[in-house]
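Friendly challenge for the regulars: who can give me the structure tokens for this chain first? No prize, just bragging rights.
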Amino acid sequence: KAPKGEVDGILKDMKILNGPLNQKLREQVGLILVGISIPQYDPSDKTVRDAMNAQVIAQEEGKATIIKANIYSQEVGIKTKADANRVKELGKAQGEKIKEVVANLAGSLGKPDLIVTSAANILKAEQIASSELVTYVEGGAGTSTAIAIEGGTK
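First reply, four minutes later:
Bragging rights claimed.
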């Protein structure tokens, strides 16, 4: 089998160092042929040509898919990092806000129990505001369910 890019079939005799072609080349131009490479060819058989084209297209589409996947991966990484930084900054801002409120309460109320309860209520309110809660029941209180009566309203 010939090395990649080399022809080792009907043209192999053309690259024999002391063969007839190399003798004439050496006499006429001072060169010798040491290898033959056919980087591109177009076979006359349409089926072979179509198969070769399909192979090249599949390879290029595969490369494009890998490039798209890498770009998507980078985008997801950037978005994830940005989201993490945003959550971190929001946490810092909320912490500062709570410190400020607690400091104001301490200055005006001076009662430690009331300050702690107020701070706990602030934290609870922050959690509720940032959640997807639809109904919130405080301290085990019951909820009432609205039942539609035919022809009536809820």
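The mean pLDDT is 80. Helices lie at 20-29, 46-108, 112-129. Your move, everyone else.
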